[in-house]
Structures are given as C-alpha cells and as structure tokens.
Amino acid sequence: MNTVKDLLENHSARPSEDVWQKLNARLDAEMPVAKTSYWSGLSKAKKAVAAAVAGLVLAGGVTLGWMLFRSGESSQTGEMAAAKPLQKIESVAESEAVAPEPVVEEQAEEVLPVERKAEPVAEKPAPANVTEPAAPEKVEKTPVKSNVKQEVLPSNSTLAKQLAADPVLKNLSDESVDWSMPAKLSIPNLFTPNGDGVNDLFVIEGLEQYSSPKLVVRDKNGRVVYQNSGYKNTWGGENCPDGVYSYEFTFVYNGIENLATGKVRIIRA
Amino acid sequence: MKEIDSDIEKIIAGCLENDRWSQRQLYDRYSSKLYGLCRRYSSSDAEAEDVLMEGFMVVFKSLGSFQHKSSFQTWLTSVMLNVAVSHFRNSKRFRREVYAEDMDMKGVVEEEEQIRTNLVADQLLELIRQMPEMMRVVFNLKAVDDYSFTEIATMTGRSENAVRNSYLRGRKWLMDKLKLEKD
Known about the structure:
The structure holds 2 protein chains of 2 kinds. By secondary structure, chain A is α+β, with helices and mostly antiparallel strands.
C-alpha cells in the first residue's frame, strides 16, 4: 500500500484562470506569433468580414437615403446634382462590400477546419470534459490554517492504518543513514567570559566542517558589537556588558549558504 | 511502443508551430495534473502558480525535443518536475535549513489533533507543504516521484548524505505529524 505516494501523485487541482492570462502574455512577449500562422490569418479574415458587413450596411444606408431623397422629388436640379455624387458613393460602398468576400473564403480555406475558428482564445472552453478522466477537479484554495472538515476519504482509522503500513513511513529504523557527517552545529545560548577557563568563549561546535563561517553579533539596540568573516571560536564577549545578544551565523555547506540565527546570553558573575 | 492519440499529436504539432489555440488546448488538458505536482512541491498556491507558468513556458519552448520515447504525459511531468526543483534550487531558500527544520515543527503542533482526525488527501498535501523547503523537495522526489538518492543529489546540488538525511527527517516529520506508531 503506497498510500502517501498515491494520494500525492494523483493530486490535481485547477489553476486559476489568471495563470493562463499571464502565460498568454508571456507567450506573446517571448514567442510572438509569426504572420504566416493561421491565427493571424484568422484575424485578417475577421477584419475582412467586419469590413464587408460595414460596407453592406453603408451601402444599404446610402441606397435607402437615396431612394427617400428621390421619392421626395422636390427639386429636379437638386435631384440631379445630389444624385450623382450619391451614386458614386454607393458604387464605392458596393465595391467595398464585394471585394473582401473572396478574401474571406480564401483565408477560411487556409485556415483549417471551420469549427476551430469558432472558439479562439477569448472563449473559455470547459476543461473538465477535455482533461483526462483521472482528474476529478477540486478547485481549492484552502489556506494552511483552515484545513479542517473536509471528510472525503474513508474513516480516519482505516486511513491511519493504511498510512502506518505505508512503506514511506514504516521501518524508519531500518534505513541506513550516515549521521556521522554533516549539518549538525551546536551553538550555545549562554557563555561566561569570567576568565575561569570554563565556557569563556562563544564556541560553536561543528564549526570546522564548514567553509566561510561568518559571525555577526548585535546588542539589544541592533548595534554590531562583533563581527568576523572567518570565525574561529575566538569571541569572548569583549567590551560587552552582561546581557542578551543576537547573533547571525552564516556558513557554506555543499556550496549552499546557510544561516543560523539566535540569541546568546553573557553572564560573568 | 506507447500509443498517443492522434488528438494530442495534432495539438503538439500545432504547438510546434507556435499556435495559440493549440497551446491553450495543451494547457487545458494538462494544467490540472501539473498544477497538482507544482502544489506539492511548493509552500503556497501563488508559488505553485508561478512554477506552473514557468514550466509551461519551458514546455512550449522545448516541445521540439520531445522524442516520443516515453508517453507525452511522462515527458511533461519530468519537464515540470525539473522546473520545480530548479525553482527552489535557485530561490536561495535552502538557507536557514539547519535550524528552521526544528523550529517549523513546533509552530504547527497545536493543529495535530485536527489533522489526525480529519486526514484526507488535501490535508496530507497541506502537511507536505508545511515541510521546510529542502525536506519537501527531497521527500517529493524520493517518496512520490521515485528518484534515487544519487539522482536527487545531482538535481538539488547537495551531497547524497544530506539528501538521505533530509528524506529520513521528512519521513519522521510526517510520522510525528500523523502521530503514527513507529515500529
């Protein structure tokens, strides 16, 4: 039973829609769509359609106006004078209306199946149907603190048993781990620089395992009272009255910088 | 020979031509699963979303290197996983590890009872996300994604011993959180 593995491996969740928006913006910035791709072709086609529609509307409007004007027939000279330019406009409008149409079809042919045109990015497809069957999606943004009362799995005792039998959690002692090596430092929280030869220095045990040991000590007001970027366990609280100090100890292990912070008390009495 | 349905092949082909529609299809198909992965490698949803986005950029840019040697899903997962690991590797958040691990554990003790009685997949996830950075990354790689200690050491830039210890500590950590009996 690999309960832990299964539960975690099968975890899926839907990211918020923002992520795609941001991703889309980054794609536009870093991988701009080339002019030859059908996507830009599509928008050209759309423009053509829009132009055609506008042209038709314009032509219709002009024609209508012209007919109304003509039916008025108040002044013959006016009619002749006005009709000519109007006709011109009409013909222009008509040619506009007609011209783009072949373009539209031409584009549409290049443009792959028609249904694809219908749902460009703007539309949000229903991903639940598209995604794999394995993913019953939970949109959950539960903050860490409120992870209560969402009983989904079988009774907790069963689960607890399953987890207890999980190879990941079982037989911890069997694991052969080499504890001898690394990562353990012991930093004192108190030392007594009174010259009695015991505990007179701020000694960090395990210090020698690491490179670039750097110590910075500050007093209560944040003033630096001691610093050494090659610390060798030599600080004895010089010029520091009894009290509590805070230290920052950085060191490099396996090429990674580590930081340990804490407080240390100086007592001389 | 792995089978890949022709639908995905078309989408992949579209993505290779940098076609937005195909990219969106790919995203819709796989983002939930991959987001799940990002979530268990990160400590917050915001961080997970960053990693997810970064990962998809890498996917779109390096799709040409997908050789059909494994299933597409497997390839995607491994790309995303690498992005997730290097995200944390670069984030300098491996700092503080030495002491942070012990301290972090105390902060959440009072929640133990609730966690034990209401344990579900999501809560297991929440526990994982409360782990210190390095512990979480190692635990995920080892326990869930089946990498060897040697591989993990290479991926995270740490020694094999450090990785082993992180993993062991991770298991103990989880065990303690779940208050399970050790045997």
